[in-house]
Fold:
Amino acid sequence: MYSNIAQLVEQGKKTSLPQVILEDEQELTQLPLEEIRETFRRRWQVMRESARRAMEEPQSMVGNLIRGQSQRQNVYSRGFTLSGESMNRMMAMAFSGSEVNAGMGRICAAPTAGACGILPAVLLEAAEKTGASEEALLDALIVAAGFGAVITKNATVSGAEGGCQAECGTAAAMAAAGAVHLAGGTPEMCAQACAIALMNCMGLICDPVAGLVQLPCSFRNASQSVNALTSADMALAGQNAVIPADEVIESMYQVGRKLPLEFRETALGGIAATETAKSIAGTIFGEH
Structure:
């Protein structure tokens, strides 16, 4: 059993991170390992479908604030781009998850519905680059889940409690750790990637326009996917976050607790409080 990232890393060095995480889950659920792995496999199928569904077919949702984002980014990725085809394809997949969620489609919260596009987009793109097998990809998902479980236990993944740093930030940290594992990185590198990704979005507020999980949530799914992948690259290059992952997680939690109410999913501050956002809310839900 582990209760923080340091313990997870130490145990992972003796066997492997996926094995430690699966055995911990088995201890908690009393289910056979293969049944737990099969549950991960089913969830991955949902993630993969949501990451691709809107790339060719825009989804409809209340207000249609983000309808077609994924398709636009996907089309753009095939021509001239500043950050390259693969980065834009990954953003299109992250947008797709957000569109499917906003359209009340089937998604897998990772760790929340509002951040559901990040983890599948990053792992799919990392798997494409590494040529990973389905089983290796599943192992990476398990690693991401293990890191996410620690953050959930020791901090929060709720935007209402900790802002968007707790939702999209945690998703980026999970995805970064999973991507590092997929690329053959060590458990320590996974922890470094987690810490770097979370530091990169420290203080990010939750300010949904009209109270809908569409804007700016979808853009943050795309941008935090980029954060995750670049954080993974930094860790694989041997960069040291200096501040241990567990301390970064605690810091994120403390920052979230100190955020004003207006910046914690109430739609009363930030982007949600702009004149245009208030006008959009009035159009969708009526003047009051």
Observations:
- Residues 173 and 259 are 20 Å apart (CA to CA).
- Residues 5-238+247-285 form one domain.
